[in-house]
Fold this protein.
Amino acid sequence: MTKYLYDIPLPQARLIFEEALKAAGKAGILGSEEVPLNEHALGRVLSIPIWARLSSPHYHASAMDGYAVHSDTTGLASPASPIELLIGTQAAYVDTGDPLPAWFDAVIPIEDIEPVTETVVDSEKPLKMIRIRAAVTPWSHVRTMGEDIVATQLVLPAGHILRPVDLGAIAASGHASITVARKPRVAILPTGTELVPVGQPVKAGDIIEFNSIVLASQVIGWGAEATRYPITGDDFELICQRVMDAAREHDLILLNAGSSAGSEDFSAQVVEKLGELLVHGIAVRPGHPVILGMIGKKPIQIPIIGVPGYPVSAILTGEIFVEPLISNWMGKSPQTPMTMKATLTRKVTSPAGDDDYMRLAVGRVGEKVLAAPLSRGAGVITSMVRADGITILPRGIQGLPAGSEVEVNLYRHPNEIENTIFAIGSHDITIDILAQFLAEKKRRLISANVGSMGGLIAISRGECHLAGSHLLDPESGEYNVKYVKEIITNLPVKIITLVGRQQGLLVAKGNPKQISSLQDLTRKDVAYINRQSGAGTRVLLDYHLRLSGILSDRIRGYHNEEYTHLGVAAAIASERADCGLGIEAAAQALGLDFIPLYQERYDLVIPITYYESQLLHPLLDLLWNIDFKNSVASLPGYNIDSMGKIIL
């Protein structure tokens, strides 16, 4: 029976897969191998316990530089009545680590003795002695045999993941090699005629193949071995041949892309032809078209996972299915992420029938740990780069309101979260430059681009440390002050100028439609791309449209929105639009022409409590840092003359 894109709950899919693995004898450690005991054994998993062959130390060893003695001979020594011991018969010099001479049971540190040389009549040589002024107890300053390890005792159990200290303990117990779980061998097969290797020229319709790099890196990070196969085009028979070749040498096959229901999605058919298709479609987002199957004939089968092509789906498929399988094969428990409770900064929706893996940026603002949802697109790999963690909204929940508490499975250590500066507001390229400079000062700056108005509202709600804003007051011609006073009424803030910048129209290279002013936006052959409502650039546009007497409904594309200047530039570069209002740096970044129109001021709005905090000190210092200022000044259309000036 073809199980064709029939989404089943994740627990059911896991159970089906686990039963098939048990039937194929693939439910535990795949095998063991003996490896030398050296630094390359780090991170390997013991498949049998380590029992001590030797005691450590395996002799009574001096723990100090000094003189070995028998404690009984020192019993009468005191500061007032020192005694002298003859070197050779009553005392013997030892260095740290030397064996204790026979009949001696203690060591006196060298700093606690007084050397004595005494001449005796008729003696061939002067007698060498030591004088001591305190008695010693038996076995003082001696590492007795077996103090650390006693022969035959358990040093480390099976299933232990080896750390640097473990390697030392194993060596001390007399072993030169260890028996560890064999590393699983994983084959990664990228498929798709549209794929091109990394570093090759690309044209429209081409996709750079990087999923195999990510999957292989995950596999290696989890302790297995990865083999990346060359790209296979959309050829059913050739894909079948590649899978069979991989099956001969590997324990698991990851067949990347072609797992959905398109005309050239062959993965399910390949699994059906070569073995048994167990599952096609799991109720998780992103990543629902996952394929689980077994290649070969019972009872000799190996597992295959059809990994979706969208990068976020591929990454999460690795975390959900591949990591637990590799851990099981290596005899260790699946990874358990650190978790943290956090409060959602905005309302989120979720498909009712799926477990929704939602990516989050996380930071502490005051007493609250906040989680800002990131882009939900399965193809947006940067959402995984920016993600501090993931929360799972289970099936049956269609979303959560702003302010809901969620549990975050962290990708970062909590210490990094504590050193995170949360910025919400208008997008500007200088914020990205700030983030780079702050990284050198052990601070992370994460930003959510929701527009100037959204940033001020976020500050009033206590949801960020600062907001970028460039809101023009049409009546006074002043930036930001009026809006800050109207929106942020519950706490004192400072407004600090970051940059002056030039806004203008972004158009295609060469300006083929000869656009020169806002009047041209009303032409029927011109398609406009706008910024979102509440963005400072949108406010600026609407202000000048009113001054010019231009009605927004005469502009084709006025309601088509992007959330960043670079998003506007990308829309024009990809010919989705002919022009849009934005900054010159965005035009330069994507090779567009720029028609300058207006000068504006871009400010940082910072609550005083954070302005005075240690967290933001490095950021504020950068506003006077010559290297940072030069980096910003090098961008086209930027002016740094007022950087750092306090406006309010």
User: Anything to note?
Assistant: The mean pLDDT is 91. Residues 380 and 417 are 22 Å apart (CA to CA). The radius of gyration is 35 Å.
